[in-house]
Amino acid sequence: MSKSLKLRGGLVFFCLLLSLISLAPNFMADSLPEWWTGAFDPIHLGLDLQGGMHLVLGVDVDKAVESRLDSTLDQIEGLLNEKDVIFKRVERLPGDRLAVTVYDAQAGSQVDSLMKENFPNLEAMTLSDEGGYIQKNYRLSTPEVANVKDYAVRQALETLRNRVDQFGVSEPTLQLQSENRILIQLPGIKDPDRAIALLGKTARLEFKMVAEDVNPQDAIKGVLPPGTQLLYEKDVNRQTGETTENPLVVYEKTALTGDLLADAQVRIDTRFNEPYVAIDFNSVGAKRFDQITAANVGKRMAIVLDDTVYSAPVIRERISGGSAQISGAFNEQEATDLAIVLRAGSLPAPVHILENRTVGPSLGRDSINMGIVSVMVGGLLVVLAMAVYYKLSGLVANIVLILNVFFIMALLSLFKATLTLPGIAGIVLTIGMAVDANVLIFERIREELRLGKTVRNALDAGYSKAFLTIIDANVTTLIAALVLFQFGTGPVKGFAVTLSVGIIASLFTAIFVSRVIFDFFLERRQIKRLSI
Fold this sequence. Notes:
- By secondary structure, the chain is an alpha+beta fold.
- The chain has 3 domains: 3-51 and 361-524, Up-down Bundle (Multidrug efflux transporter AcrB transmembrane fold); 62-145, Alpha-Beta Plaits (2-Layer Sandwich), CATH 3.30.70; 201-358, 2-Layer Sandwich (Gyrase A, domain 2).
- It is built from 14 helices and 20 strands.
- It has helices spanning 3-28, 34-39, 47-50, 61-82, 105-118, 142-167, 192-200, 216-220, 283-295, 332-344, 361-414, 421-450, 455-487, 491-524; strands spanning 44-45, 52-59, 87-93, 97-102, 122-124, 128-130, 133-140, 173-177, 181-187, 205-209, 228-236, 243-251, 256-257, 261-269, 274-281, 301-305, 308-311, 323-326, 351-359, 418-419.
- The radius of gyration is 34 Å and the shape is elongated.
- 33% of the residues are buried.
């Protein structure tokens, strides 16, 4: 046996061995060592095959505009104080407007100058007179409102993707749709309610100082001093496990937000054997936290998540390490989910579930069975046709065809691709294309044999003359498949994945593997007549 044939045969054997290793977890995962199953995953099935969740979420972009106005208000107030401008109040008006109320025209002129210099995205509106005071009205410019809304949707998509990734769902689909909508598909999800709660939580973390001089009972009756708000603190009775909500008045101004977090991890309180979430700020947040705690020793700071107070501890001393903890009425799973959303970041605007469909696995099993039947029927018909028409050479084509399907499944497993129902259709199409390549080669060989060439020369000429035609047909199809993969979504992308993988496997088996089989028999036996 020649050295060239040994090398080519060794390559085919290596590909077969690698395929067996990668596909083994699909059939015998329980009996394989842990390192094996850790390195090679079973083939992932799409939502249409294994069931799961199909969600469409709507992003409340108007809330994002309001949040931008709120942060702008804080900046304006800080700037006016810094520049010693005397003003009565800064407030947000309905819609995308805000107002600065001053005592005289001179202060109004100072406000206009500062606003024009520091807030170019705010447009000045008409003045209004309010009981002798001058109210300067502003609104966000139309391009800025559009930018805020667009950013809110894209940031929400990224935040949701981070949450899904940390939640541990394999091969999820998240993509933007029109009208501020986000499509989410979670194949094989085991706990839909938990997933919905995790995705829908805004997770806006705020640290606010407690207004200890305000009676919460008065606040419940509607008596709230300006600049304060009424929230409720969760309290758990350690003996009975009963959860109650106690009223608590805090200052509206946020001392620190969760945007400055660097990490959040679940820890266990050894004293009470209860979970809590340990949070660490980044360098900016740690410095700000240090300043806040230093200035408020002996006072209570409320840790607020989505307008619910989880705890309101007393600041005993200055905290310089940039670390804190959130403890409250939650079990270990709830603490884990809280840590996930804090690490992934808060949503820039609330999201609402517009569509929620759960696909049952029975539909997936039916689809898989029908797909397998279609592949088997189509493959059997092709095998019979090739065996009848091309005789023993057709047997070689059939062996190559079986190896082609085998390599396709192995590549899907190696690349951790997702097999979908359209993907099965792509495999069926690939079988036809693989046979087409063999037909081209065999017909060229027949032509050479009719010209009186020897079997060896006819094989050489047949493969060389069919090579460019096969490459041209398959590469153009591969380019189309790659375009579908790049710009397609959902089922289209699943079809493109299997089609691309199938083309690569078809080229390898039709041109390389079949030639190795022919050369093996030609070198072992003195064949003078080819059964083709």
